[in-house]
Design brief:
alpha+beta; about 850 residues; about 50% helix; seven-stranded mixed sheet
């Protein structure tokens, strides 16, 4: 009998088994489907009949079906009149949190929530105040009084909407009806009564329609995760108190250099100065134009301020295109990180000042400044129109007003689709909304008197040329016939795909930690998703390890498509095809539907490329961010150290991996890689001087470890360890190191990680620590171990760990000691 549905979308229920035992438990909503009747069923049916008739799922006898363990049942049993122990209940709670999948992968309601919280709220307040201004200036009792009242109401409602959405995080008022959408629609109708509020009304209507789409898709409400707070204290190196102003200036610049902020501060100063200078130039230019107008056609001073804010749009909107020219950035990046030539060093200096290696950050900064310009430009133009409506229409025509409203709607869709809690759960919303940049730029080009914005068009020329070149290069790369050589599926939710390197990248290849965009024409032909390459660049193939997100996701579609081309029941399959000469060769290009299986765009630059600049490197990853860690450690151990001549960069490596306890099973393939790398390192130490003057350490931090480990869960996880596919596909390096000596086996490491009995345990050079990393003593130890050597810190993963690493780099950098820690972190 199904009892009730909790807030997270799970059903609570109980069922009487044939042996008379009653079990109670939980199962996800996406495994329940109403067939007919009500939940309680008809009174004449047995409990078991009602259960089987009313709901269907993967198994009618499974109260809690864990799809990641092949349909095995996890129940809360009543044994001898006593309920299951607290330990087992905690284990089931962990499994629920791990495997909970929403009914729909879409997040339209979150998308609507963001639009109301920010865009619509700001529009209501801004245009509400403009309405008050319109009404007070109209001096007409009827319309003027109405504009004032509606303006005050709109501004107040905007504040209430923003406050409510901030407090309740987009929680629906009821699951029976899209009540929030109805409220927004009613408010939109009120806005359409007053001319200054029309744009705010359009914002509300768009958000209402998106919320209704989410309601129709039966999206469950998932409360936002409470992230741990970080201490926002300012960490700087300690210096003696400066005696005079010159000493203070010197210490200030030294501290900023140690924090790796000095060069970026110079860039920011140039960037801000360029914006202010261009805005001032535009202000005085239009001030002269307005003053030169005849009295009967003269516009107000407000149009000058509108043009000032328009200058921010004209300058920053073209800059949005430069950071997304990934091919050009990658070429420069490869040169800068490939060798120690004068050209490479010059490019490193260039990248130190111009943050193209932080392209997304630069893109977001330019976007925020552009948005500021959009808001100011709109407000001041409305004020000017209110004072001189006829003169304004004669001067610029009606098209700038029509195109401006459309541009505001585009900004609403585009900006709110870029929020992390919209982008991460559903990349498709971000992808499609961001392609509104095409009409955005076309409309700005025509957004001016006589249908032309000349300043913007001139400033757009070079960035547009670079971006068009970039898109042409992407199309050329996308048409390469990339051969998929093998596919491996590992429970619970991992997909490993291997490609032929030559067919994907040509002779140029790729570098450690670089990423590619992947497209599957048979799933969604217009979508490209980024994945980091998880294999060393010296191999003939490259691999991607993809975490399957769940039902309805793009990743699930790719997995199903690839699995349909292999024998049923096999977890690993190697593809072959006939070449033009009729010979059987590795790899398959086209699927059974005659479409190319997968398209590859890349490779693209990544922070781990910087490791070749340092003698000492810290390479860290968290969760699925371990993929560049895999590529780097295999490249260093199997190639750079084994075959390198002379001084090798890096010579001292410290690897760190932070993983949640509940995700360990999904990463057993990586545990195998670490073990085999340890074997190779031990072998090099025993055979000669290869490891002389080199350091290899690997630290694994296991977070969220239960206070009491469920031993049944550990035993279940170890079942199948003798299967060939348990550890994923073994590489050539893995096969070569099977006979090499090591103080531990991979199954020992895996078993201990599932049941960590000690705070810290050492497996040769691999250390397993229970709990979060304490970076302070780690950085202190590395600083003492490698005095007077700069240390490169490469990281991919949770941004909160990135903040901790940044703080440590600042703390342990010292010009006086001759040692700097430089952080390079992933920014997708």
């Amino acid at each position: 009998t199904l009892l009730r549905k909790d807030e997270s979308g799970w059903w609570l229920g109980e069922k009487k088994l044939p042996n008379g035992q009653v079990v109670d438990g939980l199962f996800p909503a996406n495994y329940c489907k109403p067939v007919n009747g009500s939940v309680s069923g008809s009174s004449g049916e047995s409990v078991s009949d009602k259960m089987d008739k009313m709901y269907t799922g993967p198994s009618s006898n499974s109260l809690y079906n864990n799809q990641n363990q092949s349909g095995s049942d996890h129940m809360l049993l009543e044994k001898n009149g006593h309920k299951t122990s607290d330990v087992e209940r905690r284990h089931i709670k962990e499994l629920k949190e791990k495997n909970q999948k929403p009914i729909s992968r879409t997040v339209f309601r979150v998308y609507a929530h963001k639009q109301i919280k920010y865009g619509a709220a700001v529009a209501l307040v801004s245009f509400g105040l403009l309405g008050v201004h319109f009404g007070l200036a109209a001096r007409v009792e009827g319309s003027g009084f109405m504009d004032v009242i509606l303006g005050i109401v709109a501004a107040g409602v905007g504040i209430l909407f923003s406050t409510w959405e901030s407090m309740h995080h987009g929680a629906p008022l009821t699951d029976m009806f899209p009540l929030r959408a109805l409220m927004w629609t009613v408010m939109a109708g009120v806005c359409f009564v007053s001319f200054p509020l029309w744009t705010a009304g359009l914002f509300l209507l768009v958000a209402s329609m998106i919320d209704v789409i989410g309601f129709l898709k039966e999206e469950p409400y998932n409360p936002p995760k409470q992230r741990r707070k970080t201490q926002k204290e300012r960490e700087v190196a300690e210096y003696a108190a400066p005696e005079n102003f010159c000493d203070w200036v010197k210490s200030f610049f030294i501290s900023k250099y140690e924090e790796n902020k000095l060069q970026r501060m110079i860039f920011c100063a140039v960037y801000i100065g360029a914006n202010i200078g261009f805005a001032i130039y535009t202000f005085f230019l239009w001030l002269g134009i307005v003053n030169a107008m005849p009295e009967e056609d003269r516009l107000t001073i407000w149009v000058v301020f509108a043009r000032l804010f328009g200058a921010f749009i004209n300058l920053n909107s073209p800059l949005l295109l430069i950071p997304v020219c990934r091919t050009i950035i990658r070429i420069l990046y490869n040169i800068a990180t490939s060798e120690e030539t004068c050209g490479a060093k010059a490019l490193r200096v260039f990248f130190a000042f111009v943050p193209l290696d932080k392209a997304i950050l630069l893109h977001r900064t330019a976007a925020k400044v552009s948005l500021m310009g959009v808001i100011g430009h709109t407000i001041f133009h409305f004020i000017n129109y209110q004072a001189r409506p006829d003169q304004t229409v004669r001067a610029v025509g009606l098209w700038p007003f029509y195109s401006g409203i459309v541009l505001l709607m585009i900004c609403q869709m585009l900006y709110h689709g870029a929020f992390e809690d919209v982008k991460r759960p559903n990349f498709e919303i971000f992808w499609y909304s961001h392609h509104l940049f095409i009409p955005y730029f076309l409309l700005i080009i025509t957004h001016g008197a006589m249908g032309l914005n000349l300043f913007f068009t001139l400033l757009l020329t070079v960035p547009a040329f670079l971006y068009i070149t970039e898109r042409i290069l992407r199309e050329v790369r996308a048409k390469r016939e990339v051969a998929v050589t093998s596919v491996t599926t590992m429970e619970p939710n991992l997909l490993a795909i291997e490609f032929d390197k030559e067919s994907a990248f040509g002779p140029a290849g790729y570098r450690e930690g670089q990423y590619v965009f992947v497209n599957c024409p048979s799933v969604k032909p217009l979508e490209w998703h980024p994945f980091t390459i998880s294999s060393p660049p010296q191999k003939d193939t490259f691999s991607l390890h993809i975490q399957v997100q769940g039902p309805g996701s793009w990743t699930e579609g790719v997995r199903n498509h690839l699995c349909s081309m292999r024998p049923e029941g096999k977890t690993f399959h190697e593809f072959h095809r006939r070449n033009a000469e009729g010979q059987l060769v590795k790899g398959r290009i086209y699927g059974p539907n005659e479409k190319q299986i997968l398209l590859i765009d890349g490779p693209h630059s990544a922070p781990t490329q910087h490791m070749t600049e340092y003698e000492v490197a810290i390479i860290a990853g968290a969760g699925i961010g371990l993929t560049p860690v895999v590529a780097c450690t295999e490249s260093i151990v199997y190639h750079r150290w084994k075959y390198g001549l002379g001084k090798v960069y890096p010579a001292h490596t410290h690897f760190f991996w932070v993983v949640s306890y509940r995700d360990i099973e999904a990463y057993r393939w990586f545990i195998s890689k670490v073990t085999e790398c340890q074997r190779a390192v031990s072998n090099m130490r025993s055979k000669g001087d290869t490891m002389k003057g080199k350091t290899w350490n690997f630290h694994i931090f296991i977070t969220s470890v239960p206070k009491t480990i469920n031993q049944t869960h550990v035993q279940e996880a170890m079942i199948g360890i003798k299967r060939n596919d348990f550890w994923g596909r073994q590489s050539v390096h893995d096969m070569k190191t099977l006979q090499e000596k090591s103080s531990f086996e991979k199954k020992e490491l895996f078993a201990y990680m599932l049941n960590p009995t000690e705070t810290e345990k050492k497996f040769n050079d691999v250390r397993v620590v229970k709990g979060r990393p304490k970076w302070d003593p780690i950085f202190q130890s590395i600083a003492k171990m490698h005095p007077k050597k700069n240390v490169g810190v490469m990281f991919c993963g949770n941004p909160f760990i990135g903040k901790d690493l940044k703080k440590m780099c600042i703390r342990y950098s010292s010009v006086e000691r001759g040692q700097l820690f430089r952080l390079h972190k992933e920014n997708f």
